[in-house]
Amino acid sequence: MRPNTLTGYRHSLKPVIEALGGIGLQHLRTADIDALVTVRLSGTPITQRDKRGRRAAEVLTFLRERAEGAQYNEILAALGEPGIKSLDRLVASGGVVRIGRGRYVAVEPSDPQRPRVPGSVSPRTVVTMLVVLSSALDDAMREGLVSRNVARMVKRPTVEHHEMRSWTPEQASQFRHHVRDDRLNACWLLTLAGLRRSEILGLRWSDVDFDAGTVSVAQGRVVVEGRGTVTGDPKSKRSRRALPMPVDVLMALRTFRLRQAQERLAIGSQYPDTGLVAVNAAGSPIRPETYSSQFAQHAKDAGVPVIRLHDVRHTAATMLLDGGTTPSATAKWLGHDPAITLRVYGHVYDDALAAAGDALMGRSRITGEQKR
Asked: Does the keyword Cell division apply (predicted)?
């Protein structure tokens, strides 16, 4: 699993663990998750449940009822061996202290303040939480830990659809013309070709085959929380692909490789040997946030809408589908699942299908009238 994926899972499940972590897995109910969903959406924070279990709560209650504490034998007589085991764990964690020979007292207040689960989050955040939780419970079912996945019975909130932003072919051409003399022109052309930022920043010269005219995606460079920029495998198995590049992209890459050779010669032995394509004039790898900020500045200077770097992939996908490329070929080019490609960019393909249907009936999509 990629580090960023793991971080995302932990972030999504944090409110689940904080609010429901004290419930035994087999005792988790749909109503418990429903209540958490309501809290997350309503904005009313929820007090976290004590995660130490029922036995620990019994020991703490027993001790709090006795201001002077209780003797070991009293606890054993009242709560048995399970109570003593919980007592030992509470002593180890600091929830109970031994104040004398065999005498124990609880050090927590009777109404402890626990961390709170925040509310007023977006429906999309809640849906993501439910998707990850449901996936975890599916794993639990396969391992025989639970008999059913109660998260699948929770009604998911409606997520408002936001139309993705992209450039028109004319705007993409305008941006391409603006960056033609930029040092990173080859990288910007790869961005316009639909490669992810991580794929461009992880591209090595050994991945560029000028004889075959291909660029292979074999690794990526991403920012991982707490670890900085990390080089690793591509985003998914489908992301690992070899793409036949247009002549102008290959020419830009040749020009950039020659420029890097000149920069290496000027700096000498101090020039880092990273083997990466996307490096600065001193040979150091370009940071992801730097690449994004430079892209935004170029878009502004080019006089085109300043969209997210990732939205350029939407532009590439739209242009491919609108140009007649099949959904499966478009998905392979982008390193996507074909089903995802159709779901995300289906409106473009639907337009093409509608045009085909109208052509069969002798109608023009341009005029909307039947040809006479």
From this structure: no
Do residue 123 and residue 209 come from a single domain? no
Report, as an integer, the average pLDDT of 247-274. 96
The beta strands (E) that lie in 236-351 are given as 241-244
pLDDT digits (tens, 9 = 90+) for 23-50: 888 889 998 899 899 888 886 655 545 5
Angstrom CA distances, 92 to 71, 86, 158, 164, stand at: 17, 10, 46, 53
Same domain for 137 and 234: no
Tokens 């504490």 found at: 69
Task: Say yes or no: 139 and 261 in one domain.
Answer: no
Structural domain harbouring 223: 181-190+198-301
Q: Are residues 229 and 294 in the same domain?
A: yes
Please state which of the ranges 75-89, 177-191, 254-268, 352-366 shows the lowest mean pLDDT. Answer: 352-366
Residues 204 and 247 in one domain: yes
Inside any domain, residue 102: yes
R_g (Cα) of the chain, nearest Å: 30
Query: Would residue 19 count as lying in a domain?
Result: yes
225 in any annotated domain: yes
Q: Say what the pLDDT of residue 372 is.
A: 42
Pairing outcome for strands 46-47 and 116-117: antiparallel
Same domain, 42 and 132: yes
DSSP-derived secondary structure for 143-205: TTS-SS-GGGGSPPPPPPP-PPP---HHHHHHHHHHTTTSTTHHHHHHHHTT--HHHHHT-BG
How many structural domains does the chain have?
A: 3
Q: What is the pLDDT of residues 70-82, one digit of tens each?
A: 988 889 998 999 8
Tokens 């080859």 sit on residue? 186
Q: What is the CATH number of the domain that holds 272?
A: 1.10.443.10
- Reply yes or no on whether the pLDDT at 363 is more than 60: no
- Phi, psi angle pair for 202, to nearest 5°: -95, -5
Contact 356, 217 (CB under 8 A): no
Environment class of residue 84 by beta-carbon count within 10 Å: exposed (0-12), middle (13-18) or buried (19+)?
A: middle
Bridge partners of 363, per DSSP, are: 370
- Both 140 and 226 in one domain: the answer is no
> How confident is the prediction for the chain on average, in pLDDT?
85
Q: Give the contacts of 130 (CB within 8 A, at least 6 positions apart).
A: 33, 37, 151, 154, 156
